[in-house]
Design goal:
The chain has five domains: about 180 residues, Uracil-DNA glycosylase-like domain (Uracil-DNA Glycosylase, subunit E), CATH 3.40.470; about 210 residues, Ribonuclease H-like superfamily/Ribonuclease H (Nucleotidyltransferase, domain 5), CATH 3.30.420; about 110 residues, Taq DNA Polymerase, Chain T, domain 4 (Up-down Bundle), CATH 1.20.1060; about 190 residues, 2-Layer Sandwich (Alpha-Beta Plaits), CATH 3.30.70; about 70 residues, no CATH class. The strands form six sheets. The chain has a six-stranded mixed beta sheet, with helices on both faces. The chain has a five-stranded mixed beta sheet with strand order 2-1-3-5-4, sandwiched between helices. It has a four-stranded antiparallel beta sheet with strand order 20-21-17-22. It is built from 29 helices and 22 strands. By secondary structure, it is an alpha/beta fold. Strand 18 and strand 19 form a beta hairpin.
């Protein structure tokens, strides 16, 4: 291709896979040097149509962010990493980025921006930055490595604004990143703390005596034999390497590894930690890590939870991220990374001790300084209530995490064999159906089969080919009727989904659990980790493994068992979100339903709607009722095959249900108006949910999230509060004969000696109903909260 046929004289169009696609869309902005440039990914449909970058919905988001940071959009030069639109808005390939890069560099050279916003991973790649955006965006603006001659710009990596249209929480992140432009690049005032290493008993005793004379609070951080954030071993099962104590900004005492084996030092340090208020970051893990050596300690402040209360979005609460972003600390983990093997369990025991103690001291100092900064913000906003509620829960969640739950390994091994046999049978059926061997786990083989048979292949912007055989996309295509003329395709899809489902069960919920089961001699146990800072709704979640997400299949839950002579008791709040809505809305009809504790609420709703009890309508009425918390629509009901209703029929019955609860409808409208007026909602427990971006495109989704937030979050916190109050009482009253094993959103599962089952059920009922009834009373309501119980010797019997 000659230069005169190029779309831009400097672009290597002959090497670009997008040469035949619409474009080019070149950069626009003022002539000459600018303060700010924006480099996006590629033109979208509207950009390619009008020939200007950032004019579509994502451009409107970027305009809002610039305006919010006092940056005049007319003074900004905007362009893209590639100038031509990829088909179906697919992510540009590296070949396309490389081919168009000389054009991009020329544009930046001509406009000489002081700052360049790299909007999205492709924009960052085009500017020579490597890595995931979640890591690239952390820290101050950065200079390009090996930039072309004449280009000297500070790059601000951030998410592409198009993501904010789908995940509106990201608008706050993008806005924060762009705000770094006006904050400038002043040098950080942070200095590495002075550290005293207590590596002998005499030095440790002197340090403890000095700490007793100080009022606190102290920041505390531990280092263990494996990285607590990256290895599936619970904190109390890891060897302690050191404990750091920050007693004032810039001053830390590190108790060295030798002191971790000195019983007298550990005893006195534990006594100190029970008397003085402690600050930790993700303190639940550190509390558990110290427990085998010193027992419980006095965790009062948690900087991770302090930040989460202020910013409930997922991610971004890690200590290093906050230290870099809020305090300007250089990325101090870099000093130990060379000693942490890539692709393997990262063992902090491999770090030379002088470096480990230095690293630990910085952790402590950053934690202490963050606390002073974040606590001031929490007090100023009157937000300390939510933090204190979660810290109390964190102190108690340590115990079910350490205790774990018994896992029936022999049964699980048999289950693996059975599932493997079932998978082999289904795959044999697949091969017989298509007359050839097909590996249902191979995307390439499936694409080849679909192509050869003329079956529809769904498109995807996430795959290089632009096509996918993902379960979600195949199901959507099936609902759209794409395979109605291919009965063999329908039969194939049934078998494919069955094989995938069985493989998921085996890989994640059976063999995955076996890998995480800890051998305790005569039996195995699973130790999950509860997280208080992950869900934007405030719901508790669990990980490594996620026991709250085990499929409700008896053969999977049968793996979790009570010890011989014991029984599981599950206390489950009855219609808890509905009760919360009744309290918050003050709806008379809904409140009366719950106050009439002698009658079944769905029988009552049936009588109200139809003038009589119609058992066949029970499932439909449950759908209406449980859809209250997110605003279920007639379209959704009509689209559910189990109801077999037309849209008109669904709409008529849904409206009849709504006529019963005018107070709820008014409350929902008031809630939605609050979101639009102030941009957030706040629960009575002090949790907030922000909604920073509401557009015509995402308005319906935001409304659903907003209506669901208050009942879901409040219900979860009622259960969490009952758990927090119940946990210490059960440890005192039952000891090893009865303790909490699981907590799941609106339920608590205990294991108790069978002889004490009735006593345990009475105690659980008291604490759980007290938590709900107290909350109802605090809101000026008398809607009661009730708890239903199930029992069994294995988890599947509780369903």
């Amino acid at each position: 291709m000659s230069n005169e046929h190029r779309k831009h004289p400097l672009a290597n169009c002959e090497e670009c896979p997008l040469y035949l696609e619409p474009g080019p869309v070149l950069g626009i902005g003022p002539e000459g040097a600018v303060k700010v440039a924006v480099v996006g990914e590629a033109p979208g449909f509207q950009e390619a149509t009008v020939g200007r970058p950032f004019v579509g919905p994502s451009g409107q988001v970027m305009n809002e962010v610039l305006r919010n940071n006092d940056i005049d959009r007319k003074s900004v030069f905007v362009t893209n990493a590639v100038a031509c639109r990829p088909p179906k808005n697919a992510t540009p390939t590296q070949e396309a980025i490389d081919a168009c890069n000389p054009r991009l560099m020329q544009e930046l050279y001509e406009h000489d921006p002081e700052y360049t916003i790299a909007a999205g991973a492709v924009g960052a790649k085009a500017l020579g930055l490597k890595g995931a955006m979640k890591n690239l965006r952390v820290g101050p603006p950065r200079r390009l490595l090996n930039p072309p001659l004449g280009i000297d710009t500070l790059v601000v990596p951030t998410w592409h604004p198009a993501y904010a249209l789908r995940q509106h929480d990201l608008l706050t992140t993008i806005d924060f990143d762009v705000s770094k432009i006006n904050k400038g690049t002043q040098a950080s005032t942070w200095q590495e703390p002075k550290r005293f290493v207590a590596d002998t008993r005499e030095r440790a005793m002197d340090a403890i005596a000095d700490l007793w004379e100080m009022p606190g609070p102290f920041s505390v951080d531990i280092e263990t034999g494996v990285d607590k954030d990256e290895v599936d071993v619970h904190a109390d099962q890891r060897p302690l390497l050191c404990i750091g104590v920050g007693y004032k900004p810039g001053h830390v005492c590190v108790f060295a590894e030798e002191m971790m084996h000195d019983e007298q030092v550990m005893y006195l340090l534990g006594k100190l930690f029970r008397e003085k208020p402690l600050i930790m970051h993700n303190g639940k893990s550190d509390v558990a890590g110290m427990f085998p050596k010193m027992g419980p300690v006095n965790l009062v402040y948690d900087t991770m939870l302090e930040h989460y209360v202020l910013d409930e979005r997922t991610g971004g609460h890690g200590l290093e991220i906050l230290g870099i972003e809020l305090l300007g600390v250089p990325p101090w983990k870099d000093m130990v990374k060379p000693y942490l093997a890539k692709g393997a369990a990262k063992n902090f025991a491999d770090i030379p001790r002088h470096l480990l103690y230095r690293y630990n001291a910085i952790d402590c100092d950053v934690t202490l300084r963050l606390h002073y900064m974040l606590w001031d913000q929490l007090q100023w906003q009157d937000r300390t209530k939510a933090h204190d509620h979660m810290v109390r829960a964190a102190n108690q969640l340590v115990y079910p995490e350490m205790d774990g739950i018994a896992f029936d390994m022999p049964y699980s091994m048999e289950l693996t064999e059975d599932l493997q046999s079932q998978i082999a049978e289904v795959e044999a059926e697949i091969n017989k159906l298509v007359g050839q061997e097909v590996n249902p786990r191979s995307t390439q083989q499936l694409l080849k089969l679909f192509t050869a048979r003329g079956w529809h292949i769904p498109s995807s912007t996430k795959s290089k080919s632009g096509l996918t055989t993902g379960a979600k996309e195949l199901l959507a295509a099936r609902i759209e009727g794409r395979y109605d003329d291919h009965p063999d395709a329908l039969a194939f899809l049934d078998l494919l989904m069955k094989a995938r489902d069985l493989s998921k069960d085996d890989g994640t919920y059976v063999r995955g659990m076996q890998l995480r089961a800890v051998d305790h001699g005569d039996h195995h146990r699973i130790h999950t980790t509860y997280t208080l800072h992950v869900a934007t709704t405030g719901r508790l979640s669990s990980k490594d493994p996620n026991l709250q997400n085990i499929k409700n299949k008896p053969y999977l839950r049968r793996q979790f068992v009570a010890r011989p002579g014991n029984i599981f008791l599950s206390g489950d709040y009855s219609q808890v979100e509905g009760r919360v809505i009744a309290v918050l809305s003050g709806d008379q009809y809904l409140g009366d339903l719950f106050r009439n504790t002698e009658r079944d609420i769905f029988d009552e709703i049936s009588n109200s709607m139809y003038g009589k009890l119609i058992k066949e309508k029970r499932t439909l009425l449950k759908s209406f009722f449980y859809g209250l918390s997110y605003g279920r629509t007639a379209h959704g009901i009509a689209g559910d095959p189990k109801f077999n209703l037309s849209f008109t029929e669904a709409d008529v019955q849904l409206e009849a249900f709504k006529d019963l609860i005018p107070g709820v409808l008014d409350w929902q409208e008031q809630t939605w108006q609050t979101v639009q007026d102030q941009g957030y909602l706040e629960t009575t427990f002090g949790r907030r949910r922000h909604f920073p971006l509401i557009t015509n495109r995402n308005k319906d989704e935001v409304r659903k999230e907003a209506l669901a937030f208050l009942p879901q979050s409040t219900a979860s916190d009622i259960c969490l509060r009952s758990f927090t109050h119940m946990s210490p009482e059960l440890r005192v009253n039952y000891g090893h004969e009865g303790q909490i094993r699981l907590t799941i959103h609106d339920a608590i599962v205990t294991e108790v000696l069978q002889a004490r089952e009735a006593e345990m059920q009475a105690d659980m009922r008291y604490y759980m109903e007290l938590s709900g009834n107290d909350w109802s009373y605090e809101q000026g309501s008398n809607v009661p909260f009730q708890v239903a119980f199930k029992r069994g010797t294995s988890w599947d019997q509780l369903d």
